[in-house]
Amino acid sequence: MNMDPVCPLDYRYGRDEVKALFGEQQRLQFLLDVEAALARAHASIGNIPKEAAEEISKKADTSIVRVERVREIEQETKHDIMAVTRALAEVCDNDAGKFVHLGATSYDIVDTANALQFEKATAYLSRGLKDLQMALLHLAKTYRGTVMLGRTHGQHTIPITFGLKMAGYAMEVDRHLERLHEIKSRIFIGKLSGAVGTGAALGIHALMLQEEMMKELKLGYEDVATQIVCRDRYNELLCLLANIATSIEKFGTEIRNLQRDEIGEVAESFDVKKQVGSSTMPHKRNPITSENVCGLARIVRGFLTPAFENSIQWHERDLCNSSSERFLIPHSLILTDYIIYKTTEVFTNLKVFPERMKQNMEHSLGLPMAESLMTSLVGKGMGRGEAHELMRSISLEAASQKKPLKDMFIEKTKKNPILSKKEVEDAVNPANYLGATDQIIERVIKKLERK
């Protein structure tokens, strides 16, 4: 009976090329690749005939070892790797099949295949993060001088530029790219050391055999394995995915906040001819993609708990990790790639409204410039504490009377005008209080464009 898909990855989320890496067909191919590499390694040190290794390698292909046949065998054996090895062995000619899986345990194959999947999947993540970084860098360059309100605690603070915000995001992505590069030597790791890590069934050349097999696959190998590759490695990968997802959620949350009607400084692109914002409110233009990636980021983080619990194995290994890893490994990698991809779309097509940023600054009645005035007073010789107290009282009164800060400052200091009118005008001009913003953005541009 054909079943409708249940998992949203099957019909809603994820890019096809990344999902294909974790599909049944490709997963079988990774397993077959490992079995073929094992046979070639045996042949290279004289354990089996070279012709047998060549035959196994020739037949280790999903066009010959069919997914359907593996399923049939697994129905009988109730063991997935035994089903793969038996399906491979039965298509090999000249008795080569008897050398399939020689000396190995199931997780020599499974965990080594996992490493091959990690290698392919993280390559997509790296490319995706670079694309996102370039979209953010473009915004940083385009809006490096576009003044807007900085906000802390949800309140207006002092001016920044939209370019500075985007430069900060670009550098956050850059750190994730560094982490993804640094992690490779610790996660592209397979194993060939048997049931408890001793390599007993592999013979006197067990260590050499492992080295040859991993050389074939261009992988490292576990220094001291149990029955499995040590799961602290997997935890590191999944923590990095959660970290990336958290950055993405931060970026998406900022877009959602800045798109709120009462702020209105940026907006996701919206297809006015076709797109529907609400099933009941025709006027709605929702930041739907940003909301989407924020929700999916929470799923990625949610996989950390079972991942860490999988690391607590009984003795040399139990089976508790197997079932949960079938969910958490593909879902985490597929979803992280997807949210990077969708977020890149958001920032590539982002609508930015500098005039609204200016209006919001003006709506604040100049209160964000209180620090600038305080700094100017200090520059004229007033003590920092005294200047802070003066500006605190002036700011509170200006806010209560809904009067521009500049006017209130002039009124309160007219008996002792420490600052000239021009000095006051300069101090309340947001464009004059951006500090090293432009130099910071330029530094980011130079650093990222050198890579």
Salient structural properties:
451 residues, mainly alpha, Fumarase C, Chain B, domain 1, Fumarase C, Chain A, domain 2, Ribonucleotide Reductase Protein R1, domain 1, two-stranded parallel sheet, 61% helix
The count of domains is: 3
Class from helix and strand fractions: mainly alpha
Radius of gyration: 30 Å
Query: Could you name the CATH class of the largest domain?
Result: Mainly Alpha
- Binned, the helix content reads 55-70%
**How many strand elements?**
6
> Helix count?
19
Largest sheet: 2 strands, antiparallel
Mean pLDDT: 95
Task: Give start-end ranges of low-pLDDT stretches.
Answer: 279-284
Please explain how this structure is put together:
The chain is built from 19 helices and six strands. By secondary structure, the protein is mainly α. The protein is elongated and about 105 Å long. Mean pLDDT is 95; it is low at 279-284.
Question: What's the topology here?
Answer:
Elements: H1 16-19, H2 24-44, H3 50-59, H4 67-77, H5 80-91, H6 106-142, E1 147-152, E2 155-161, H7 162-182, H8 184-187, E3 189-190, H9 206-217, E4 220-221, H10 232-258, E5 266-267, H11 288-302, H12 304-310, H13 320-348, E6 351-352, H14 354-363, H15 370-379, H16 384-401, H17 405-412, H18 421-427, H19 437-449
